[in-house]
């Protein structure tokens, strides 16, 4: 009888420990996503200023500027992780195009406001890359715990499911936009 009681206590402690670890990992993944969300918001807030500055110099780039504005609006709406990654990938590619267009306008490249916005965008992209790595690292750890035996049994009992990675499908979007100061 004492052996059964000891085994039951051991099992209960094990389940509690695994459950608490899963809770911790889930919260870290949510924190990681929050970090990405903050940086995406900072970038989205920067885009209208960048568009306005370029618009003053590059009147005939209207279609590109409208596309950036549309993607910026799309990026601040709530999405699933996969949809957010796709939207951010499209915005990053379009911002790259904007930087290429800016190269054709010497006055724009010399504008102090534009240079400041480029620098801020570059800093945000670097921070965003770090936030993505943190999120994906915590998701990897959580998903591994959810899939590994015997913690997968506890995860199944408490209805834990895998979190999606923040992945960019286009290889060119994996790099921050080229910002030439």
UniProtKB/TrEMBL annotation:
It is a single-pass membrane protein. It is found in: Membrane. InterPro entries: LemA-like_dom_sf (IPR023353), MamQ_LemA (IPR007156). It comes from the Bacteria. Pfam families: LemA (PF04011). Its main location: membrane. Coiled coil: none annotated. Keywords: Membrane, Transmembrane, Transmembrane helix. Gene3D superfamilies: LemA-like domain. SUPFAM superfamilies: LemA-like. Belongs to the LemA family. This is LemA family protein. It comes from Negadavirga shengliensis.
């Amino acid at each position: 009888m004492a052996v059964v009681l000891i085994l039951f206590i051991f099992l209960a402690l094990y389940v509690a420990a695994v459950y608490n670890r899963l809770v911790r990992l889930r919260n870290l993944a949510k924190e990681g996503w929050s970090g990405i969300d903050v940086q995406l918001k900072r970038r989205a807030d920067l885009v209208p200023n960048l568009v306005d500055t370029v618009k003053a110099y590059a009147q005939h780039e209207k279609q590109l500027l409208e596309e950036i504005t549309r993607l910026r609006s799309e990026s601040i709406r709530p999405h699933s992780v996969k949809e957010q990654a796709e939207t951010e990938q499209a915005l990053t590619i379009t911002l790259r195009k904007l930087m290429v267009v800016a190269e054709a306008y010497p006055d724009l490249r010399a504008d102090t406001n534009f240079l400041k916005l480029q620098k801020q965008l570059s800093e945000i992209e670097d921070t965003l890359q770090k936030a993505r790595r943190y999120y994906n690292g915590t998701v990897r750890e959580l998903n591994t715990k959810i899939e590994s035996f015997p913690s997968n049994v506890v995860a199944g009992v408490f209805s834990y499911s895998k979190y999606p990675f923040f992945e960019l499908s286009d290889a060119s979007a994996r790099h921050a936009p080229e910002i030439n100061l």
